[in-house]
Amino acid sequence: MTVRRPYAEEILGEWGVRDVTPPSQRERERVERDRDVNPLTGEPLRRRLRNFRPEADTYIASLGGPLPYMKRLRQIEEETDAHLARLGAAYAERRDAESWRRTVERWDFGEVNDLIDRHNHWFPIEARLAMDPRSRDFVKVGGKPYRRRRLDAAWVLERFPA
Fold it and tell me: What are the residue boundaries of the structural domains of the chain, listed by start?
């Protein structure tokens, strides 16, 4: 049995110009129509510089698994979900609004709030967040501030009203 070695074209998928299909024909026509209004037609495009270098610390971090802030965020989410589950069970057993408020005010969020405080303090440094010159604060992550809200009675009452 002989093993056939594939040609480079088969591996890379470089077959040259293919037959025109109806969707590709429509796309070509749209491009042709837009050529007249494009101010860059016939002009050489500016080269896009790639100003980055792989650094030793990024290589080291990639070998060590999740970074500390990633582990901490996961732990915050898990502990918050656990609190929500226990609060949901307690909410189902509540007698009246006053007893529910007392239960919520006595609820212990110490461990998760400690994680949240550490996250709010260290996350911008560990994640290398850029600074926003307008606000003089770190940039938002996914359109939201990076700071997490501490869990307290008000947080619980938003989710489980008395």
Answer: 70-159
Count of C-beta atoms within a 10 Å radius of residue 80: 17
In terms of DSSP bridges, do strands 131-132 and 137-138 run parallel, antiparallel, or are they unpaired?
A: antiparallel
Q: What tens digit of pLDDT does each residue of 5-32 get? A: 666 656 565 555 667 788 888 888 888 8
Task: Compute the radius of gyration of the chain from its Cα atoms.
Answer: 28
- Measured distance CA(109)–CA(152) in Å, rounded: 7
Structure tokens belonging to residue 148: 């997490």
3-state secondary structure labels for all residues of 73-97: HHHHHHHHHHHHHHHHHHHHCCCCH
Residue 119: predicted pLDDT: 94
Q: Which residues contact 151 (CB under 8 A, 6 or more apart)?
A: 80, 83, 109, 112, 113, 116
Run of H or E residues at 60: helix 56-63
H or E, element range at 102 = helix 97-106
